Structures are given as C-alpha cells and as structure tokens.
Amino acid sequence: MEWLKAFAMLIGRVLLILIFVKSGLGKVENFAGTAQFMTKAGMQYTTFLLLGAIFLELAGSISIALGFLTRVGALMLLVFLIPTTLIFHGNVVDQGQVIHFMKNTSMFGGLLLLFAAGPGRLSIDYLFRGRKR
User: Fold this and answer.
1) Which residues, other chains included, contact 119 with Cβ-Cβ below 8 Å and sequence gap of 6+?
2) Start-to-end Cα distance in the chain
3) Contact (CB, 8 A) for 17 and 61
4) What's the mean pLDDT in 117-127?
5) How many angstroms separate the CA atoms of 85 and 87, rounded?
6) Does residue 60 contact residue 77 with C-beta atoms inside 8 Å?
7) What angle (nearest 5°) sits at the alpha carbon of residue 42, between those of residues 74 and 94?
C-alpha cells in the first residue's frame, strides 16, 4: 500500500505542474505578445516581470516533477499564482474570469497540500534525505 501512495504522489505532482509547464513555455514562445498583453493589463516592468514569471513557472515545475527541493518548487509556483490570479483573473463580473480564478485557487490548494505533505517516496528529496512521507 505504501508504494501505491508513493506512485499516486508522483502522478499527482506531474499532473499538478503540467499547466505551469505549458504556460511557461507559451510565454517563452510568444514573449513579445505576452509582454504586450501584460502592458495592456496596466503592468510596468513587463520584461523583468515576464522573465520572473517564466523562471518561477518552469523552475518550480521541474523541481516538483523531479521531487527535488519540492517544497521550494511549490513556494515558487505559489508566488507566481498570487499576483497572476489577482491581476488577470480578479474580474468577478466576467464568468470566464471567475472560473479561471477558481481554477487558480484549486491549484493553490494543491500546491499547499504538496508543501505540507512533501513529495513522497518517489522523489529525489526522499532519496537524498531519507524522508519518510
């Protein structure tokens, strides 16, 4: 039963980060368009913030997928999610944005659970530190 739990944690980690990987790579592929979108949303320092967003999404995702410094990776994605949710999905009049807001709060919950529980046995953290989660 313990290995079933470990396998579920691994699959859960991978499924949780897929949206961040796709989003981060999309920002890389359409850097100028994303920067323009951010500027239209009223953001300043878009190049700096966009580079930061890409770093947080991709580095956090890789960390979680590998189970290496998993809690740090979860924190990175949480830091990314807070302003993203409030700035781009805070329009409660637009039903589409409400759904995006709720999706982001669900991901926030999943990341908090990962932060609290750790990565599980099938992780680099467990191998190097002997964590028994």
Assistant:
1) 9, 13, 64, 67, 70, 125, 126, 131, 133
2) 13
3) yes
4) 94
5) 6
6) yes
7) 75
C-alpha atoms less than 13 angstroms from C-alpha of 67 in its C-beta half-sphere: 24
What are the tokens at 129? 């530190």
More confident residue, 93 or 119: 119
Given a contact cutoff of 8 angstroms between Cβ atoms, the answer to whether 76 and 60 are in contact is yes
Rounded Cα–Cα distance for residues 50 and 127 (Å):
34
Give dist(CA 106, CA 100) in Å, integer: 10
> What percent of the chain clears pLDDT 90, i.e. is strictly above it?
82
**Does the pLDDT of residue 132 top 70, yes or no?**
no
pLDDT in tens, 53-79: 999 999 999 999 999 999 999 999 999
Assign 41 a pLDDT band (cuts: 50, 70, 90). Answer: confident
- In whole angstroms, give the CA distance from residue 81 to residue 1: 33
> Alpha-carbon torsion 10, 76, 32, 34, what sign?
positive
